[in-house]
């Protein structure tokens, strides 16, 4: 693990169980094609088994940079930070990703503490909406969630729709499949930016399917997506426009998050507003 480390821009630590490691590794290696990385896969196995560490190193065309798979057994499952610390690249950022279960306070987790960025995914939680709604309580600068990353094309499209004067927004609705954690987060962001009440309504999916914003002067600004690929943007006084708004795989979401290693202040504001809305019984 020497010469190949030249040119790598970060260490990506992926904490995952055996059932999720294949998909997580595939996403991480695809993301590493854009961001050359040393990928450390921490796979916790049975803590009741004798202490053992099984390690596998992959270097080659199929794995950009270096990939190290670490399967931890016994008491080692409680000391993953001690196992991976000697393997971190020196003088480069460390990003920790939990594709599945994550600690209650990621920044205080022994592995999470090593990272300058910590990536979660509320969608993997048993109650995804409750998970994203609780993020503000544990937030530390550097935290983010892929439920937020999935909103980037929606936020960009909605922001662009206001490049020309639209008028005062008096309220709105975000429509999504039941239990979609991105829906209340998008509602919170819109509420924060537009200073208007935004609700969440269930739809047949898949994922997010629409946003409807009521304009004070009359009419609605709407974005409607029914096939997970294309959406229709409608604004008062303008012809409808078809725009690309495809659902993205985990590899693209991860690659987007690896492009920025500074705290995401807009995400922080959105989860704080979501927590306020939940406290008021809204969304």
Overview of the structural elements:
The chain has 283 residues and is α/β, with parallel strands linked by helices. The chain folds into two domains: 3-145; 152-244, Glutaredoxin, CATH 3.40.30. The protein contains nine helices and 13 strands. It has helices spanning 21-32, 80-84, 128-133, 135-138, 146-149, 152-161, 182-194, 250-258, 265-279; strands spanning 10-16, 37-44, 52-60, 63-73, 94-97, 117-120, 143-145, 169-176, 198-202, 208-215, 220-225, 230-234, 241-244. A seven-stranded mixed β-sheet has the order 3-4-2-1-5-6-7. The protein has a six-stranded mixed β-sheet with strand order 9-8-10-11-12-13, covered by helices on one side. Helix 1 crosses helix 8 and helix 7 packs across helix 9 (265-279). The protein is elongated and about 65 Å long. The N and C termini lie far apart (49 Å).
Mean pLDDT: 92
N- to C-terminal distance = 49 Å
Gyration radius, rounded: 21 Å
Q: Structural class of the helix and strand makeup?
A: alpha/beta
Assembly classification: single chain
Tags for this model:
elongated; alpha/beta; Glutaredoxin; 283 residues; seven-stranded mixed β-sheet; six-stranded mixed β-sheet
């Amino acid at each position: 693990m020497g010469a190949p480390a030249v040119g790598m821009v970060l260490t990506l630590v992926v904490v995952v169980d055996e059932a999720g490691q294949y998909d997580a590794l595939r996403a991480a290696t695809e993301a590493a094609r854009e961001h050359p990385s040393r990928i450390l896969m921490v796979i916790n196995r049975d803590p009741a088994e004798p202490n053992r560490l099984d390690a596998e190193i992959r270097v080659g065309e199929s794995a950009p940079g270096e990939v190290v798979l670490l399967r931890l057994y016994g008491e080692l499952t409680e000391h993953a930070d001690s196992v991976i610390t000697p393997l971190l690249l020196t003088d480069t950022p460390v990003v920790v990703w939990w594709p599945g279960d994550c600690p209650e306070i990621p920044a205080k987790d022994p592995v999470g503490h090593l990272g300058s960025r910590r990536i979660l995914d509320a969608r993997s939680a048993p109650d995804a909406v409750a998970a994203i709604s609780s993020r503000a309580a544990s937030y530390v600068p550097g935290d983010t969630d892929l439920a937020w990353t999935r909103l980037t094309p929606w936020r960009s499209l909605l922001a662009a729709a206001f490049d020309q004067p639209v008028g005062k927004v008096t309220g709105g609705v975000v429509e999504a499949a039941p239990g979609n954690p991105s829906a209340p987060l998008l509602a919170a962001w819109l509420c924060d930016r537009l200073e208007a009440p935004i609700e969440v309504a269930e739809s047949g999916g898949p994922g997010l399917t629409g946003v409807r914003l009521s304009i004070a002067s009359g009419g609605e600004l709407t974005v409607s997506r029914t096939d997970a690929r294309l959406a229709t943007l409608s604004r008062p006084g303008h012809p409808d426009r078809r725009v690309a708004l495809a659902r993205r795989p985990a590899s693209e979401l991860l690659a987007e998050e690896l492009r920025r290693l500074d705290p995401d202040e807009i995400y922080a504001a959105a989860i704080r507003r979501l927590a306020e809305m939940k406290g008021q019984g809204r969304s």
